[in-house]
Write a structure and sequence with these properties.
20 strands; five-stranded parallel beta sheet; alpha/beta; 563 residues; seven-stranded mixed beta sheet; FAD/NAD(P)-binding domain; 3 domains
C-alpha cells in the first residue's frame, strides 16, 4: 500500500475532479437550489434545529452510523449557518468561513480532517493557503505571520531582539492546547455525576488550560514571557477571533486560536457553501429531509421529556429525539417553555454570561478578474492621541464613541482563496471587510432608519479605506456591489446578533463548562454547535461528534480520529 503524503489531501489544478456534488455557481446559486418542502418528514427518528455545521454534522453522523431519518429544520432560506454565503447581484460573500486549520492529517493533531471527511463523505476538497497566511498592520507598520512557529520565531527575534521569550511562547501555546483534553471530558460526564465531582476532576486535570483561562493575554505576554508592550500587542493582533481585547481576553483561548494554524490554513474548494452541498445528500440518502425557511417556534416538552417541535406555521412534528443547533440562549430562552427553563436552572445562567460580539461588514464585488492576495489582513485601529500599539484604548474608543474614522478591520478576498472561483463566477472578484460592532448599533439600526442609513454609509467609506490600504490593486476600480451593514447575518436570530455564541471568556470555559454540554436536564433534548463545545467552525464541527458520544454513551467514538 502506498503511504499518502500531505499533498495527496489537497486540491491541485492538475488533478481532475473525480466526484462530489456540483459546485454552487452564478447560474446555480444556493438560493435557486433550496425551497421549503410542501410536506415535512413524518415520524423522523430525530429532529435537528438549525443547519450550522454542528447541526448538519450530527445529522450526518446519525444518518451514517444509525441509518436514522433526520429532519433538519433551518429558519433561513439556505442551509449552512455560518458556512452559508450571502448572494448579492450575481456575487457570493461568505458569512463566517475564512480559513480552517488542522486540515492536514499527516501533521500535528490531524483530528479535524478525518472528522470533516466523514461528515461530508470525503467529497469536500480543501485548498492549502500560503504559509505566509496573515498580515497585520499597526498604522504603517506591517508584520507577516506564517503557519510555522520557526518562521515566526526567526522574524520576531530579528525585529524585536531581546524583547521577550518568543520560543517560550510557542512552548506554552503547545502546553495549553494539550491540557484542553480535561475540559473536553467535562462535556461527556453523565448528569447524574454531581457537579462538585466533575469540578474536582477538572481542577485536578485541567492543567495549563484551566490555569491560563484565568490569566489575561497582556499579563502573560508581559509578566510571564517578558515581552515588551509593543511586542505583546503584535502577538495580540488577532484578538478579533475571540472578541476580547488583550487586557480582558483569557490567554488560553487566545493561544489555542493561534495554535489552530500552526500546521497551515485551508479553504474549502467551491467556497464555504460547498460544505452543505456535501452533507445534505448524506442526510437525504438515509431518508432524512432538509426543510429550509422553516423556523421552529418552540420545543415540545412533556413531563421533562422532549417529544418534538412546533414550527411557526403552527404545525407540530413529534420525534423521540430533539437536538438543538440554535445556540444555548435561543434553546433555553426562546424555544423551551420559560417556566421549564427557570425551574431547571437554565434561565439564571444567562444572567451571569454574555453573548460574543456581533460584526459589521463591507462586501465589494467587481465585474472583472483581479489578481487579489490569498492572505488575510488584520488592520489595527489607530487614532490621534492614542498610542499606536494600545489596542485596548483604541478598541474602547471605537466602540464607545462610534469612531469609525480610524477603525480596525479584518479583510479577506474570497475569490482569491477559492481555487475554482473563476469557474463558478467567471470574471468576478470579491473582497470582504469585517469589524466588531456593539449590539447597541444593531438595535438602533433596527429601530431608526435614518441612523441605519447613516451608519451604513460611514461603514462603507471607512471599511473601504481599509481595503484600499491593504489591497491597493482595487483602487480606481468601480465595484458592482458595494454593500455595508450591521450585522453580518451568519445567525440572524442569535442573541444580540452575536457571531460566536456565548462570549469566549475564561468563565465560559471554567465556571460555565459543566452546564454547557450536549446532554441537558430535559430527557431526549441535546445541544450541538458552538455553545455545546467551542466557538468557530472547528469547535462546532467537533460538537457534533461529542453530541453523538453523549447520546450514545460511546466515549470510544471520540478516541477515533474518524467517526
Amino acid at each position: 500500500m502506498t503511504r499518502r503524503t500531505s499533498k495527496d489531501y489537497f486540491y491541485t489544478p492538475e488533478t481532475p475532479r473525480t466526484g462530489g456534488p456540483p459546485y454552487l455557481t452564478e447560474a446555480s446559486p444556493a438560493s435557486a437550489r433550496y425551497q421549503r418542502p410542501e410536506r415535512l418528514l413524518a415520524n423522523p427518528d430525530a429532529i435537528v434545529i438549525g443547519s450550522g455545521i454542528g447541526g448538519m454534522g450530527i445529522a450526518s453522523i446519525l444518518a451514517q452510523k444509525k441509518g436514522w431519518k433526520v429532519l433538519l429544520l433551518e429558519a433561513c432560506k439556505t442551509p449552512g449557518g455560518s458556512t452559508r454565503c450571502r448572494e448579492l447581484d450575481g456575487f457570493e460573500f461568505p458569512l463566517g468561513i475564512d480559513s480552517i486549520g488542522d486540515m492536514d492529517p499527516t501533521v500535528g493533531r490531524g483530528l479535524y480532517r478525518p472528522s470533516v471527511d466523514f461528515l461530508t463523505g470525503g467529497r469536500l476538497e480543501w485548498a492549502k493557503m500560503p504559509d505566509l497566511h496573515e498580515i497585520c498592520t499597526f498604522g504603517e507598520d506591517k508584520y507577516e505571520w506564517f503557519s510555522s512557529p520557526e518562521k515566526n520565531i526567526e522574524w520576531v527575534e530579528r525585529r524585536f531582539p531581546g524583547e521577550g521569550d518568543v520560543r517560550g511562547y510557542y512552548d506554552l501555546e503547545h502546553r495549553v492546547e494539550w491540557w484542553a483534553w480535561a475540559w473536553a471530558v467535562t462535556k461527556l460526564f453523565p448528569l447524574w455525576v454531581p457537579e462538585g465531582m466533575r469540578e474536582v476532576f477538572y481542577q485536578a486535570f485541567g492543567g495549563a488550560w484551566r490555569e491560563y483561562m484565568g490569566r489575561r493575554v497582556t499579563e502573560v505576554f508581559t509578566d510571564t514571557l517578558g515581552y515588551s508592550p509593543k511586542l505583546a500587542s503584535v502577538f495580540s493582533y488577532m484578538y478579533g477571533n475571540h472578541g476580547r481585547t488583550p487586557k480582558h481576553a483569557p490567554f488560553a483561548f487566545h493561544a489555542v486560536n493561534l495554535f489552530h494554524y500552526r500546521y497551515g490554513a485551508y479553504y474549502p474548494v467551491g467556497g464555504p457553501g460547498q460544505i452543505a452541498e456535501c452533507i445534505i445528500p448524506i442526510v437525504e440518502q438515509a431518508g432524512g429531509q432538509l426543510a429550509v425557511d422553516c423556523r421552529v417556534k418552540r420545543i415540545l416538552v412533556e413531563q421533562d421529556t422532549a417529544v418534538g417541535v412546533e414550527i411557526e406555521t403552527g404545525e407540530t412534528i413529534r420525534a423521540p429525539l430533539v437536538i438543538s443547533d440554535a445556540s444555548a440562549y435561543t434553546t433555553w430562552m426562546d424555544l423551551v417553555d420559560p417556566a421549564v427553563s427557570e425551574r431547571l436552572g437554565y434561565a439564571e445562567k444567562f444572567r451571569d454570561i454574555r453573548p460574543s460580539p456581533g460584526h459589521v461588514y463591507l462586501f465589494l464585488g467587481y465585474d472583472e478578474a483581479i489578481d487579489l492576495p490569498k492572505q488575510i489582513f488584520w488592520h489595527m485601529p489607530t487614532y490621534p492621541g492614542i498610542p499606536q500599539y494600545d489596542l485596548d484604548a483604541a478598541d474602547d474608543h471605537y466602540k464607545k464613541d462610534m469612531a469609525l474614522e480610524g477603525m480596525g478591520g479584518y479583510l479577506l478576498c474570497p475569490s482569491a482563496r477559492d481555487p475554482v472561483h473563476s469557474q463558478r463566477y467567471p470574471n468576478k472578484s470579491t473582497v470582504v471587510v469585517l469589524a466588531e460592532a456593539p449590539y447597541a448599533w444593531v438595535e438602533k439600526s433596527r429601530q431608526d432608519l435614518e441612523f441605519k442609513q447613516s451608519l451604513e454609509a460611514r461603514l462603507a467609506d471607512n471599511l473601504e479605506q481599509i481595503a484600499f490600504f491593504n489591497v491597493p490593486q482595487i483602487q480606481g476600480k468601480t465595484p458592482v456591489v458595494r454593500r455595508a451593514g450591521v450585522s453580518t447575518g451568519c445567525n440572524p436570530f442569535a442573541w444580540e446578533a452575536c457571531s460566536l455564541g456565548l462570549e469566549p471568556s475564561g468563565d465560559r470555559f471554567v465556571k460555565h463548562t459543566h452546564w454547557l454540554t450536549p446532554k441537558t436536564k430535559i430527557k431526549n433534548l441535546y445541544l450541538t454547535g458552538q455553545d455545546a463545545f467551542s466557538a468557530g467552525f472547528a469547535g462546532s464541527m467537533l460538537s457534533s461528534r461529542i453530541c453523538y458520544s453523549a447520546l450514545t454513551n460511546n466515549w470510544f467514538h471520540l478516541l477515533q480520529k474518524s467517526p
